[in-house]
Amino acid sequence: xxxxxxxxxxxxxxxxxxxxxxxxxxxxxxxxxxxxxxxxxxxxxxxxxxxxxxxxxxxxxxxxxxxxxxxxxxxxxxxxxxxxxxxxxxxxxxxxxxxxxxxxxxxxxxxxxxxxxxxxxxxxxxxxxxxxxxxxxxxxxxxxxxxxxxxxxxxxxxxxxxxxxxxxxxxxxxxxxxxxxxxxxx
Amino acid sequence: xxxxxxxxxxxxxxxxxxxxxxxxxxxxxxxxxxxxxxxxxxxxxxxxxxxxxxxxxxxxxxxxxxxxxxxxxxxxxxxxxxxxxxxxxxxxxxxxxxxxxxxxxxxxxxxxxxxxxxxxxxxxxxxxxxxxxxxxxxxxxxxxxxxxxxxxxxxxxxxxxxxxxxxxxxxxxxxxxxxxxxxxxxxxxxxxxxxxxxxxxxxxxxxxxxxxxxxxxxxxxxxxxxxxxxxxxxxxxxxxxxxxxxxxxxxxxxxxxxxxxxxxxxxxxxxxxxxxxxxxxxxxxxxxxxxxxxxxxxxxxxxxxxxxxxxxxxxxxxxxxxxxxxxxxxxxxxxxxxxxxxxxxxxxxxxxxxxxxxxxxxxxxxxxxxxxxxxxxxxxxxxxxxxxxxxxxxxxxxxxxxxxxxxxxxxxxxxxxxxxxxxxxxxxxxxxxxxxxxxxxxxxxxxxxxxxxxxxxxxxxxxxxxxxxxxxxxxxxxxxxxxxxxxxxxxxxxxxxxxxxxxxxxxxxxxxxxxxxxxxxxxxxx
Lengths: 186, 526
Description:
- The structure holds 2 protein chains of 2 kinds.
- Chain A has a two-stranded antiparallel sheet with strand order 1-2.
- Helices cover 48% and strands 5% of the residues of chain A.
- By secondary structure, chain A is mainly alpha-helical.
- The two termini of chain B are 27 Å apart.
């Protein structure tokens, strides 16, 4: 058996795609597809999704289009033991929705205290400045999980959706070389 | 609650150590049941993806993390059949003779009750059993001779080769890394493809995970694996001098009792003491086998000093394994770094992925926005790294104790309290300094240290071995001093940790303990 054949000799059994709910039925989509098709959010409120998209995009360009809000929404809507979030390996205590809600709340409270605007309403320059201070735990009056940890977790999520997928590897020009490829290129 | 028919041995945990015990004892004709808290993973579950690989790790927090350097266990712990050895890097360095006698030689830390010579034959046996690739002769510049490894060294790639010039300039000899992977076909398992997905599980069986080695042997010999079975207590007789089985919750979350002649606790280093502390009785008020008061004490972790280098050339950093291509014990002496104490084990050359903790997006965790995007474009061609693992000395204040909160089965959560001492910090810093020196010697365009919070890697101690019940929990075979038919397996029994990756030694000590148990079965189980 040659190496290319062996790389794919065991086929994944439909385990790779994420299940999104559309019109009461479950469909398998990538987060980018879920966003493009306007799949309704299950757990996040619209303002929370707006915040996650804004933060994600500021952390890693293209995270919004890659479906970061749909990804996190889907992941915090399933049992913790099924979750694929980096939060899982960073010792965040489930339910993971609590962490994201606390993080978003802290970011928006701090942003409003500084500029009288939610984070998503800041211009790109001020978003960058805000994140730079957040990652260094330098925002006065911060109330929530440590800013540096919020930065690390949400940056990891954004890296995941932009660079961690088969499409992300392809975009960077790196061979993905799976033994068992995730379905839906995820 | 149901009580199952008594078996010879119940083993708690189906990872590296539990699988080894199961194979030896099942082949010796014993009726063996393994209870594993997580899912029954199959090779076909090992999807090549950093996202999907996270399913192999614990979700939730039965441990509360405290201390100056909280122990971040979730990344490296296992959850499910195969345990952490389902997603490990399979670096197989041995401990060296100086690891076994630190107290004798330096007047500090602890001695092992055995020497390197006691473990060495089991390193050789494990190599033959599971398959190890490397160059044993080359390693003998640092250690006593042993058998050759059954397979030649793995292939190397530019991402490893580019470091050799820098190491040579620093006077550090590098040899082919010993790894639990197949450089050639071995025992019907194929050779490695160098695709770098080891850390999310190797479905082709080229990497020596339990599913294709000891656990497969155990099942073939009749061992039964019950997945999603969470053990909460070890049960004892009224006199408190024998264990009689374990209490556990099954996949329907119903309480069960499995009676057994011998109990082997082979969950991870955090969970074994948690179960033993939760098994306290009037005869063992401080927890089982805890007359010494040392149950849950002397928890230790490795730490790593990583160094990155960016080259203009394409160093093929997508090629290789998650394990190392080259390794060195050149700084393994306990006092090799002035002003620090402890061994250092050095590795170079690894296949890299984009995301997850070890991905190259985290090579510059300070970057975000367009600078990160620019960095990723450069890193995909020219980025490579080395690592220096450092040894922490045992400190009785680093410990596990039960907490007030309880889990879904009513079992108390546990706290892991962990702080590095000044020696560990000094060694960490010294290895960063030397790493930069090495990197500068390569001629790389940019070099930098992977500094952040001092990481905690691997977990040792909590049920340490020693010469008696006054100074330890178990003997060198993992048998508890106070209850003859209760064994503990895994890195929890290490009294010191060395700087080498632990799994090879876990396999070797488990094989030694299991063979001793089989040989002395009547005396232990009778």
